[in-house]
Design a protein that fits this description.
- It catalyses: CMP + ATP = CDP + ADP; dCMP + ATP = dCDP + ADP.
- This protein is α/β, with parallel strands linked by helices and 202 residues long.
- The protein has one domain: P-loop containing nucleotide triphosphate hydrolases (Rossmann fold, 3-Layer(aba) Sandwich).
- It has 8 helices and 8 strands; from the N terminus they run βαβαβββααβαβααβα.
- Strands 2-6-1-7-8 form a 5-stranded parallel beta sheet. It has a 3-stranded antiparallel beta sheet with strand order 3-4-5, with helices on one face.
- Helix 1 crosses helix 8 and helix 2 packs across helix 4.
- It is globular.
- The two termini are 12 Å apart.
- 40% of the residues are buried.
Amino acid sequence: MLVAIDGPAGAGKSTVARAVARALGFTYLDTGAMYRCVALARLRDPHADPARLSIEVGDRVLLDGHDVTDAIRAADVTAEASRVAGDPAVRAALVVRQRELLDHGDWVAEGRDIGTVVAPDADLKLYLDASDEERARRRAEQTGRPVAEVLAEQRDRDARDREREASPLRAAPDAQLVDTTGLTLDEVVELVAARAQAVKAA
């Protein structure tokens, strides 16, 4: 079974997807970490070929055998990740890898185009969102940066993600919208896990 969770930055996708996977006994796939790995590689070498990079995502993230779990969360990598995600060649290379992974077993996969491009036949598609202010506040708490600064960057990133030609950010037509504004993590996880269990039992 595959649960696809899409949505903009700061909507809670990663935290929710990881917790839901744990609750259901599924494997968690953070596709955003894969794009961040390519971004980090490109910052180190602008000509890095995403098809040749060794990327492993799990509890720790490995790039060419090196642990980059913390390095890929740096501000410069975050900014570059949004840019490389708009590169059709990068998306094509990573989508192939993602589909190969998701082809076997039970998964909770999160990103920006899981339900629309990577796995349009997913058993359950969810689109997590929250107000701009709520998303910025969450990210500011994670990074220790001013909310106003995060909000400005977030709006730029949202625009890039929604307007890019390659796999723009949008909800799949058959995705269920989950507005996480004002909800606790436990409430969102319980809601998503219940929907997944209902689909699996059907």
